[in-house]
Amino acid sequence: MNPLLSYSYQAEIFCSIDAICAIVRLSSISDKKPFPNDRTVFMKKSILITGCSTGIGYCVAKALHEKGYHVFATARRPESVQMLLSEGLQSFHLDLMDSNSIKLAVEEVMRRTDGQLYALFNNGAYGLPGAIEDLSRNALRDQFETNVFGWQELTNLVLPIMRKQGYGRIIQNSSVLGFVSLPFRGAYNATKYAVEGLSDTMRLELKGSNIYVSLIEPGPIASQFRANAIKMLAKYVDVEKSIHYERYQGVLKRLNKEGPAVPFTLPPEAVLKRVIHALEAEKPHPRYYVTFPTYLFGVLKRILSTRALDALLAKSGNNN
Ligand SMILES: NC(=O)c1ccc[n+]([C@@H]2O[C@H](COP(=O)([O-])OP(=O)(O)OC[C@H]3O[C@@H](n4cnc5c(N)ncnc54)[C@H](OP(=O)(O)O)[C@@H]3O)[C@@H](O)[C@H]2O)c1
C-alpha cells in the first residue's frame, strides 16, 4: 500500500477511535453527580435567571427553588412575573432588550441578597428563522440585542459583584447551533456562535478568579421555542415576497408540528441536570452537551471536513 495512503487510513482510524472515546467520556461525565465534598453545596446559593416565563428557564427556576436555592426568576412580561410570583418564586421584570431593566434587576438582586450573587443563568432568548438574505439589518440587530448584547450587559454588571465576593458561576444557555449551522437558522446561529466566543474568552480572562463560565449546549428541547419562532418569522420576514417562499412552507410545517419536531427531543429537565452540575461541581465543565444530536455533531465537527459536514447539515435542514 502507498505509505501516504496507509498513513491517512491510520489517521482516519485514530480519528474514529478518538471520536468514540470522546462520546463515551462525555456521556459518562454528564451523568456524574456533583462533587459531594463541595462545601458550597450546603450553603443557600442565590441565582439570577433570565427568561423564566416558559421552557428551560421556568423549569430550572422552579427546580432550583425547590432544591433550596435563592432564585430570582426574571421575565419580561408583567403577566409572566405575576405567574412566577403566584407560584412562590421571587420574580421581577428583566427585558434583555432594555438596558435600564437589566440595571434595575441587578440592583433589585443586590438589595435582596445584601450585595451577593452566587450565579447567573443567561437563558432568555429567541430564534429568528429565515434565510439570511431575507433578514434586514433591524431583524439581525434585534436578534443580537436579545441573545447576545443583553446577556453580556447583564454579565458585565454581575462580574464585579462576583469578583468582590471572590466566587461565582456564569452559566450560558448556548446550543448545538452554537457550533454547527443549519439553513434558515443563520441569525440564531450567529448569536449562539457569538455567545460561545464571548464565553470562551471570558473563561480565559477569569482564570484564577474563582468565577467559572460554563456553556450548556442543548439540542432539541421541548419548550415554547418554536411557537415563539413563528411569531418572529411573521414579525421580521416577508415570506410571500421571498425567493424561498416554497422552503418557508417547510419551515412553517416544522415549527407548527404538534409534539417534538425532530427525533431525540428531550424535556427541559435534561438541561437542568447540567445546570446543577455547573452550579455545584467544584470545577464545573466549560461545556455541557445535552441531547444525542449535540454529542453526534460535536464528534462529526471534529472528524469531518467542512465540505462533508456541510453536505450532512444541508441535508438535515433541507426541508426546513
Ligand atoms: N428549545 C430548544 O430546542 C433549545 C435548544 C438549544 C438552546 N436553547 C436555548 O434555551 C434558552 C431557553 O429557550 P427555551 O427553549 O426555553 O424557549 P422558550 O420556551 O421560548 O423560552 C424563551 C424565554 O426567553 C424569554 N425571552 C425572549 N426574549 C426576551 C427578552 N428580550 N428579555 C427577556 N427574556 C426574553 C422568553 O420570554 P417571553 O415568554 O416573554 O417570550 C422566554 O421566557 C434559549 O437561550 C435558547 O436559545 C433552546
Automatic annotation (TrEMBL):
Keyword entries, A-Z: Oxidoreductase
UniProt-listed NCBIfam families: PRK05993.1
Protein name in UniProt: Short-chain dehydrogenase
CDD domains, sorted: 17beta-HSD-like_SDR_c
Family, similarity comment: Belongs to the short-chain dehydrogenases/reductases (SDR) family.
MF term (GO), any: oxidoreductase activity
